[in-house]
Each structure stands twice: as C-alpha cells, then as structure tokens.
Specification:
two-stranded antiparallel sheet, mainly alpha, Cyclin A, domain 1, 66% helix
Length: 116
C-alpha cells in the first residue's frame, strides 16, 4: 500500500470531532446493512479517486451541521448517505432524478420481490 493510500485510509477511519464514525469498543458500528454499504461505497469511490476525502468529509460536516441547525433527528449514516449523494451530484456521477428513481425502487414492493 502506498504512503498516499495509507494516509487516506487513516484519514477515513480515524475521523475526529462531530463527524467521527460510530464505534463500539473501537469497532465500526452499522445497525442496518445499508449503512455498511453506504460506508463502503464512499470509501471505494474515494480510493478510486472519484473525489478527495476532504470533499466528502466537508459535505458530511455541512450535512451534520445543517441537521443540527434544523433540529432534525437523523442518524449518522443518513447524514453519510446524503453527503455521498451530494458529492455524487456535484461531481456529475448521477442526477437528482436518478437518485429519486433508485430511492423509489428500493422502497417499493417490486424491489423486495427481487430479494427472495
């Protein structure tokens, strides 16, 4: 692993402050399967140089602050996912319509039928 990759990995896994990753006994905590997938997707996209970690982290910090300002009751990984969506929109990887269509599909009975 290159020094750049090692530094990048450390920046991700050891974030501090208000954007710290949820942990129990030092281990990352995911309460739902989608949380781990969203985490992994953000990390892999960064590792594939789709964006810098600071770009993602700044979106995450902004999302958490916005939620606190509006007294929203969101989980950490809901912030994470919205941050990933925003970075993806800014970078032009997806459109708002594509995000909405995928969200509708995932929430539908049709998607559940494919999971059996």
């Amino acid at each position: 692993m290159s020094d750049n990759s090692t530094q990048s990995e450390a920046a991700i896994f050891y974030m501090g402050g208000g954007d710290s990753l949820p942990r129990e006994n030092g281990e990352l905590v995911f309460h739902e399967p989608w949380e781990g997938r969203a985490f992994g997707l953000a990390v892999v996209m960064h590792q594939n140089e789709r964006y810098t970690w600071d770009e993602f982290r700044n979106q995450l910090i902004d999302e958490i602050a916005r939620s606190e300002d509006h007294e929203e009751d969101s989980t950490y990984y809901e912030h994470w996912l919205r941050s990933l969506e925003k970075v993806s929109l800014i970078k032009g990887f997806v459109t708002e319509e594509e995000i909405q269509n995928r969200a509708a599909l995932l929430a539908s009975d049709e998607y559940d039928d494919h999971q059996e």
